[in-house]
Amino acid sequence: MTTVGIVGGGQLARMLALAGYPLGLRFLVLDPAPDTCAAGLCEHLKAPYADPQALEQLAQRCQVITYEFENVSLEAIQALAAKVPIYPPPSALAASCDRLSEKNLFQSLGIPTPKFIPIDSFDDLKQASKILGWPFLVKTRRYGYDGKGQHLIRTAADVEAAWERLGGQALIGESFVPFQRELSILGVRNKRGQIAFYPLSENTHKHGILHLARSRPDDPSSPQAQDYARRLLEHLDYVGVLALELFEVHGHLLANEMAPRVHNSGHWTIEGAETSQFENHLRAILDLPLGATEPVGLAAMVNFIGTVPDLTDILEQPGVHAHVYAKAERPGRKVGHATVRAASEKILEARLHRLFKVLP
Ligand code: AMP
């Protein structure tokens, strides 16, 4: 029986396991938290992500290893890759865990980005508007997620407060993009180089956290997004699911960031696509043929943030599916999601409207 190792035992690991059991797979997750939510489904190695003994166990017991977030130790992943196949390739992790190297990679592949500069000192920050204009964003290069570790600088008066909050770490400055839409493209590539793309997701955030992701089959921006994602997949000799987050400005796309893993904006693929992103990630890393990525009707995903709503209210609605991650409820934490499906935009809109009424 094939055992897949997953570094990180959160909801992404949980949903990978749920997709993998029908394929006869076993899972071993490495996570320091005693109550990590994949532990209810998978064997759990409770140890720090870079713990040498735990990594050795993963290498011994798993035929292939993947990871579910970018803030894992790059050095630990690289060391593991010498012993056991690990996908997506550590080179993708290396590029994506530092916002500066990520944007340099985009540029080297001809993928447009917002203007950006490294910020290494208070003086760099004071001078940044000369290149970036006003307003601009300053972000930590590492360990940022869900809008954490960033500060919007509207005028020179904001510079000092931003430095007080974020100074002392490696930073990047980015011009503020007045986008019309935020989109993400999810692509998947297997070891033989077969590539497939899901329909674009159109994403709405609240307080920096993804709130709503809608499938957009046949979107006019899809060919451009696929072209950019394909450049990354091929350049990195990538294996697995890759998410590329994009800003759309007057029909043009700018790359914001990439995630070398399954992604929150693709959760709708569980019910809204022929093969989910989770199953396709597993198929890719196991060198199996990819499943069809065609949409099944229209779909939208709404995150449950902080609390899980009453399931009766959710499940009595037609076309609505609930996913509860079995995590402790805490403000700002993703604890589950609902997927709404419909055959037409009009019906989807009405179903979303009803769903929002029962969400906290
Ligand atoms: P990030 O952590 O880079 O994904 O940023 C979180 C959210 O902040 C994004 O989804 C956007 O809504 C917003 N954001 C990030 N960078 C920019 C930018 N350069 N211009 C405008 N909005 C941005």
Characteristics:
nine-stranded antiparallel beta sheet; four-stranded parallel beta sheet; Dna Ligase, domain 1; D-amino Acid Aminotransferase, Chain A, domain 1; 30% helix; Rossmann fold; alpha+beta
Report on the structure:
With 360 residues, this protein is of the alpha+beta class. The chain folds into three domains: 3-86, Rossmann fold, CATH 3.40.50; 115-175, Dna Ligase, domain 1; 181-358, D-amino Acid Aminotransferase, Chain A, domain 1. The protein is 30% helix and 28% strand. The chain has 13 helices and 17 strands. It has helices at residues 11-20, 52-61, 74-81, 90-96, 99-108, 122-127, 129-132, 159-166, 222-235, 269-272, 277-285, 311-315, 345-358; strands at residues 3-7, 26-30, 43-45, 64-67, 116-119, 136-140, 150-153, 171-175, 181-189, 195-197, 200-206, 209-216, 240-249, 252-259, 298-305, 320-324, 334-342. The longest helix has 14 residues, at 222-235. It is globular, with a radius of gyration of 20 Å. Residues 114, 137, 144, 147, 174, 176-177, 182, 205, 208, 245, 256-257 line the site of adenosine monophosphate (AMP). The site of adenosine monophosphate has 13 residues, from strand 14.
